[in-house]
Amino acid sequence: MIGKGRAAWGRYVLGPALGVMSMTGVALAQDAGGDAALVARGRYLATAADCAACHTTPHGGRPFAGGYGIASPLGSIYAANITPSKVAGIGAYTEAQFGRAVREGIRGDGARLYPAMPYTSYARLTDADIHALYVYFMQEVRPVDERPPATHLPFPFNLRFSMMVWNALYLDNTRFAPDPAKSAEVNRGAYLAIGLGHCDTCHTPRNVMMAEIGGKELGGASLGAWIAPNITPDPVSGIGNWSSDDLFRYLKTGDVPGKAQAAGPMAEAIEHSFQYLTDDDLKAIVAYVRQVPALRDAADSRPRESFGMASGREAALRGVSGTLDNGEKIFSGDCAACHQPGGQGSRDSYYPQLFHNTATGASTPDNLIAAIVEGVDRTVGGQHVFMPGFSHGSYVDELSDQDVADVGNYVLTHFGNPAVKISAADVASIRHGGPKPLLARVGGYIVPALAGAVVVLLALVGLVVARRRRG
Amino acid sequence: MAHPSFSGSGDVTADVVIVGSGVVGAVIAHQLAAAGHSVVMLEAGLRLKRSDIVENWRNMSFHNRVHSDFQGLYPQAPLAPAPLYFPANDYVGLSGPDGSAFQQGYLRTVGGTTWHWAASCWRHLPADFRMKTNYGVGRDWAISYDDLEPYYCRAEEAMGVSGPHDPDLQSPRERSRPYPRDMIPFGYGDRRVAELVNPHGFRLVPIPQGRSIQPFEDRPSCCGNNNCQPICPIGAMYNGIQHVVKAEDAGAVVLDQAVAYRIDTDEKNRVTAIHWYDAERKSHKATGRTFVLACNGIETPRLLLLAANERNPTGIANSSDQVGRNMMDHSGVHATFLANEPLWFGRGPAQSSCIVGPRDGGFRSSYSANKMILNNISRVGPATQQALELGLVGQALEDEIRRRAACGVDLSVSLEPLPDPDNRLTLSRTRRDPLGLACPDIHYDVGEYVRKGAVAAAEQIKQVAGLLGGTELRVTTSFNANNHIMGGAIMGSDPKDSVVDGDCRAHDHANLWLPGGGAMPSASVVNTTLSMVALGIKAADSMQADFQGGRA
Fold first, then answer.
1. pLDDT value, residue A23
2. What are the φ/ψ torsions at residue A454 (nearest 5 degrees)?
3. Distance from CA of A148 to the nearest CA of B (A)
4. Which CATH architecture has domain A304-439?
5. CB–CB of B220 and A386 under 8 A?
6. Is the pLDDT score of B306 beyond 60?
7. B5-58+104-548 CATH fold
8. CA triplet B262, B268, B274: central angle to 5 degrees?
9. From which residue to which does the signal peptide run (chain A) (predicted)?
10. pTM higher than 0.95
C-alpha cells in the first residue's frame, strides 16, 4: 500500500510540531487574525494524524498540495490538495464540509472518497479537534492553486458512489467517547491510536472488501511489500514482552536495539508524526496498546525479537579453501561491512544487529525481504538512518531475486527464525508490491457477484450498523 | 527514450558511440541519453558485482594489503588485460630513467577505475591553466579556469562532492556555487596537525571528496571503513558505475567485453564507425554520428595509435604527432615518520586533509609545486610489519603495534611534471594482448623540474616532521605513480602541436571527442578525476550543441 520513496516529506512540521509555538508560528497565526493557540493545536493534530504522509508529495512537494499517488492494490489514488486554495484545494469548504470529508469521506462536492483516506479512523475525532484542524488548515497552511492528478481506478472501483454501500457497511460514524472503566491515559491513548494516529489502518487485517476485520484489532496485516505486525500485548505473537519504555522509544525514535527498527511505512509514520508527539501522548498510546485484547497466532512459537545469536563463522572461514555458498558470499560482500560478520551490528547501533530483531525473527519473511530490496530510510531527531536497497540502481549492488532469497535465507538460518524460508518467487512478489488482496486480484470479475450480492448486502446494512452501534 | 539499434549480426547504430564506461564516459552517456539521444557504450572489461570484489578483498593476503594491491582483486576480462603487479604482468612496458614511476593501476571494467579511487575531487587552480604565460614553463590550456568553472560545479553536483563551505579552506577559492555538501569533518589527527603546521604557512585544508557523511540521493553515508582503495564495501564512495546505471535508465546500452580496435573515417575525416571484438573474438561495428573515446590516459592514445588507417596513417587524431606524447602523472614520494604524540590516522575516509601551501608560487618558474596528503589510511598494517621486524612478541608486540599505529604518519607527496613530448606512449613491437593487439609501451623521465621540486619538497617534509616531533623519518628515494594519467591526447589551440581543442574535440575529426585526463595540458599537483569529469561534461555540451545545430 505504501512504497519506497515517501520518506523525505513533512520537514515543514519540524520546529512547531510539538504544539510548542515557535515565534514564526505565533506571528503567522496572529497575522491571519486567528487564535494562535488554536492554530498550534490544529497543527499538532495534523501532525498526529500524519496528514502530510499522503497530502504532501515527498522530496520537496509543497505542504498539503496533494498529488502523491498512493499505490493502492487497486491502482494509484492521488491525494487531494488540502491547502486553503479556493480553486484547487479546500479553501471554499465550510467547517461542516471539512468535517464531513475528514470523518465521513464525503468531498465538498458530495463525491465519496476512497478509504485510502482513513476517515473510518478519523470518524472518531471530536468536534473541537475538527475545529482546530479546520482553523489550522485555513489560517496557516499556504494555499497552492494547483490541482493534483485525478484518480482513475479501473472499473468497477471507479464508481465512487459504490463507496456509499461500503460506508454503510463499514463506516462507524460515531465520535470518540471515553470508556469510564479505563484510565484517562488509556482513553487518551485510544483516541490518539485509533482516531488520529489510525494505527488500525495498517495493523488491523482487512476482509475481502478491504474493511478492517472486527475482533482482530491490531492483530497484524500485510501492507503489500511490508507487514504491519501484531502489536497486541500477546507475549508470543505481539509486543507483550516489550517494556513500556521499549514501546515509547520505538515510537519516539524507531530504534530499539535488540528488538526492532522501523522501516517502510512505520519509519515514515515515526519520521513525520510520532517523533513530534508529546511524551505524554506517546505514553498514552503505549498504555492503550498494552491493554487491547491479546491475539495469538498459532503459528508463532517464540516472540519474534527472541531469535538468533551472534555468529562466529568469519574466523572459521578465512584461509579455508572451497567456495562459499551464494548466500554467505553475498552476506560477506554486501552485508557484513555494516552489520558485521557476526551480525552484531555497529556499537552505536546505527547499523542494527541482525539477531534479536523482529525483521529476522518474524514468522513471515516479508519485512526482511522488503528491507533488502527497498532499504530503510528514517530521519528522526535530525539523524538520517539510511540503508540502501539492493534493487536496480542500488549504490551498493543490484541483487537478483535468487540472490536476495539466498542471502535472506543465510540471515534467517544464522541470525533469525530458521524455520522461515525465502524463495525467489517470494522476493519477486515483494518487489512488485507484495501479495495482492482478493479484491484487486478479481478486479472486474467482482461486478456480477456484486450485483447479485448488493441486494443482500443492503438488506444486511441496517443490521450491521445496528450491531456496531450496540458494540 | 532513444535506444541504439542492433542488427542480427550484432552490429549497432546509435547517435552516440562511446568507448569506455568509466566515470567520464558514463557521465557523458547519461547526459546525452537523458537529452534523448541513443547511446551505446563499448567497455573492454567485465561487469562486476561489488559483493564479489569485497569478498576477494576479504580473502587477500596480508602481503598484498600492506603493499597496496588495488588491482588484483578485480577480475579481468580474458581478452582485455589491465596492469597487475602481484606479480607484474608487464601489460604496460615501461622504460626510461623513471619508467618505474609510471606503474599505473587502472581498471578496465564497467564503471572504470573509480571502483578503487580515493574520491578526491580537486579543482585545478586558475594559474594551472596558464603555466606558460604565468611561469614560462609547460603549456597553457586552450581554455581558462573561468571557462571550466561552471563544469567543475556540475561535476561536483553530479558526483555529490563534500567540500569546505568556508572559503578559507578552499583551494582554489574561486567558485560560483557552493559544494553540494559541506566538508567531511576533520578527524582528530587532521585538527592536531593543522594546529601544529598552519602557523608555518603549510595550509592544511580538507580534501573535497566524492562521498558524504549524510546520504546523498540514494548513496549511503560514509561510515569510515577506511577501505576506499581497493574497494568501498558499502557503496558510499562515488563510482562511475552510478552514472552507468543512470545512463542505462535513460536508454543507453553498455556492451561489456567489447574491445574497440579499429576506427573508420570518411573523406572529410569524420569518424563513421568503430569496430570491436566481442568475448568470442567476433568483430562487430558501431556506426553513429558522434564518437567519444573515454578510455583514460593510456587506453585512449593506445586505441588512437592502434586504429591508424589509410587516411590517418600515424594514428587517428594524430596529424600533430602528439598522440601518446606528453605523458604525465603526479610522480611522487612518500614520507613516513612517527609523531611524538598519538594522531590516530586511519579513521574515516582514506583521504581527509592535505597540505596545499606549496601548491602555487613564483617558484613554479623553476621547479615543481607539490601537495602533501596527510594519508588517512590505517597504519595498523605497516605498524604491525615494523613491530614484527623488531622481533617483539607477546604484550610488547601488541603495545608496539598500538604505538606505531597511533603515532604513524604517512605523507603522500605529489609533484607536478611538465608536458614533455619525449615522455611517450608507443605501441609495443613485441608484446601483444590476447587479441593480437599491440600492448602499450611508455618511456618516462620525470624531468629536472620534478627532481628540483622533490628537493624542495624534501626540505618541507623535514620541517613538517619536525613540527610533529617526528622520528624514524623515511622518504622514498624513487618516484611512485599516482594513477593520475594525463597528456596523451593533449589539448591546445594550435592543431599543429595538440590533439584536441578546448571542448576535447579532436582537431582532425569534427565528430570525435577525446575527453579525460589525456587532454589535460598541465598536471597541477591534484588528483585528476574532477577535472576529467568537468572536461567530459563540457565535451557533452558541445556534442549536444552539434546535434542541435544540425552539425552532428
1. 32
2. -65, -35
3. 25
4. Orthogonal Bundle (1.10)
5. yes
6. yes
7. FAD/NAD(P)-binding domain (3.50.50)
8. 20
9. 1-29
10. no
